[in-house]
Amino acid sequence: IRNGNLVAARAEGNAAGQNANQIRCYNCRGFGHYARNCTARPRRRDAAYLYTQLLIAQKEEAGI
After folding, report:
1. Which of 11, 28, 30, 56 could bridge 40 with an S-S bond, Cβ 3.0-4.6 Å?
2. Is residue 6 a contact partner of residue 12, using CB atoms and an 8 Å limit?
3. Which residues span the domain enclosing 40?
4. Residues 9-21: pLDDT tens digits?
5. What is the pLDDT of residues 25-52, one digit of tens each?
6. What's the first-to-final CA gap in the chain, in angstroms?
7. Minimal CA–CA distance to 34: which of 19, 21, 23, 20?
8. Using alpha carbons only, how large is the chain's radius of gyration in Å?
9. How many domains is the chain built from?
10. Measured on CA atoms in the order 32, 36, 41, 44, is the torsion positive or negative?
11. How many alpha carbons fall within 13 Å on the CB side of residue 47?
């Protein structure tokens, strides 16, 4: 089994189980391409997102 996708997926380390030849993008979580080939636009990080991340970080520091 020297399929190019299978070898690339093994090297990338994100394929498992029955669908070993299905590579998955870490950017959009889509199948069949890598993040560097992804055409999806990056998610916007607006004020609400950053505020939520700030609260999460503060709770982790406080030990909650």
Report:
1. 28
2. no
3. 4-62
4. 444 455 555 656 6
5. 888 888 888 888 888 887 777 888 889 9
6. 49
7. 23
8. 17
9. 1
10. positive
11. 0
Q: Specify the residue for token string 């996708």.
A: 5
Kindly state the tokens that stand for 13: 């380390």
Structure token pair of residue 61: 């520091």
Single-letter amino acid code for the residue at 19: N
Torsion of CA 17, 21, 26, 29, to 10 degrees: -80
CB contact set of 6 (below 8 Å; sequence gap of 6+): 15, 20, 21
Structure tokens that stand for 49 in this block: 């997102």
Please give the C-alpha separations between residue 13 and each of 22, 35, 37, 51, 64, in angstroms, as whole numbers: 11, 13, 17, 33, 33
Is the model more confident about 60 or about 26? Answer: 60
